[in-house]
Amino acid sequence: MTEISLLWITLPFMVGFLIYLLPQAARYLALAVGIGSTIYSLLPLLSDFTLNLKLLDQFGVTLLVDDLSGYFILTNAVVTIAVILYCWATSKTAFFYTQLILLHGSVNAAFACADLISLYVALEVISVAAFLLIAYSRTNRSIWVGLRYLFISNTAMLFYLIGAVLVYQHSHTFAFTGIQGAPIEAIALIFMALLTKGGIFVSGLWLPLTHSESESPVSALLSGAVVKTGIFPLVRLALMFPEIDPLVRWFGVGTAILGVSYAMFEKDTKRMLAFHTVSQLGFVLAAPEVGGFYALTHGLVKSALFLMAGSLPSRSFKQLKQQPIATPLWIALAIASFSISGFPLLSGFGAKVLTMKNLLPWQVIGMNIAALGTAISFAKFIFLPRGGSEPRLKASFWPPMLVLLGGLVLANVIYYEAYTWANTVKPLLTIALGWGIYYLIIQRVSIKLPRMFEQFEQLIGMMSLVLVGIITFLLRGILV
Q1: What gap in Å lies between CA 119 and CA 111, rounded to an integer?
Q2: Residues 312, 229: contact at Cβ < 8 Å?
């Protein structure tokens, strides 16, 4: 299996360059890579397969594929397939599919490595490929948003590299295990960079503008898979080191509440979805031991919602209330909204129940508030008028919806033990309460939350604040 694993890691990069030689086959080659990753991801999830391969033993460069990696790799694979199907009948060039597959391969690498230096390389490649996709339309706006993303990403990775060097200086290894006993400043720098890359808390406020201003297929990739490359190492480290687990959980709760607070009052569909991505990433971190399942569920539903948002006649909820949308599109929106709100029969239900069961007592109130905020936010889609004849959906709209929404139904069986009366009644009451609050209060008020923390010149300051917070938290742990 070692040879198969190495082939799987390198295949996207080989195919990426092959696409330039065979541009007519770009879609087929890209789709084959996505299907290959799907099959590989099922190995650790459906069997006892685990890969633990030391490539450079002296430096601790290691590949580790287990069931946690399996959930994240599966998320990346399914989202990539859906985006390829969505773009199938469009005029996307070989350049687009090349960047898409290079991005897919580097995201896979980030989910498979268990050392700081391999992760650094993977995250840097991801930054460049994501920038090229964000700027693909070549408009002034898309180029500015892409450069903004690249600057923030590279700044965060500079801090990460300094932290990794400090860990090596202390432990003489780049393996994740070298973090044990490393200087506080090294851990703080690495964590701050990963939190920024993952769109977590205030240092992740670059995310709403980037995800909302990109083309819908790119937004689906970013929210569904790419942003999780910053989350995955945090989950891995929280599971490896019990002393780090509380720090990750604190940021999980804070992020869930921060993101949903903005999402509830946002009037723009894509910005609402982007802020809600921030919130849902907090759910992944709030219970690291079950974060893989939640990441899979979120990846499927959020990429579906971004693709649907691209087919709506307007980005403004105010205008959508005046213009009934086609009933098939409304049904697809409703299924995705039900899942992310925790409605039974869809995987969002099991993921939320499992997460809530693995919270620590001090997290419960905060995460229930975030869950209520989720129901309020997605009531905006549920209460949209339906029955219109526009827009006419493209033929390529339904295959990715079949993959993503069908995936939500299939993934529902992963935690079928969730189906008890007590577990079923609670989310139903939460959803009903959320819809009531939206209908009676939220849709009647106009609150505009400040955007100054999203401004380019403020983002580095937000990273500094998070760095100070991490150091304070770690020092408190030592002093206590």
Answers
A1: 9
A2: no
Structure tokens at 236: 């891995």
Dist CA 102 CA 80 (whole Å): 11
CB 173, CB 209: distance < 8 Å: no
**pLDDT(216) > 60:** yes
Strand, coil or helix: 22: coil
pLDDT digits (tens, 9 = 90+) for 258-274: 999 999 999 999 999 99
Indicate the residue type of 404.
Answer: L
Q: What is the DSSP letter of 224?
A: I
Q: How many CA atoms lie within 13 A of 348 on its CB side?
A: 24
**Burial (Cβ within 10 Å: 0-12, 13-18, ≥19) of residue 6:** middle
C-alpha distances in Å from residue 68, one per residue of 72, 162, 169, 228, 322: 7, 27, 29, 13, 44
Model-level pTM?
A: 0.96
CA neighbor of 335 nearest in space, from 12, 166, 327, 53: 327
Radius of gyration of the chain (CA): 21
Confidence of residue 478 (pLDDT cuts 50, 70, 90): low
Q: Hey, what are 448's tokens? A: 């505009």
- Predicted pLDDT of residue 57: 75
Sign of the Cα torsion 111, 468, 472, 183 reads positive
Q: How far apart are CA 1 and CA 478, in angstroms?
A: 43
Pairwise CA distance, residues 343 & 151, whole Å: 39
**Residues β-bridged to residue 386:** 325
Q: Which of 446, 447, 449, 466 is nearest to 458 (CA)?
A: 466
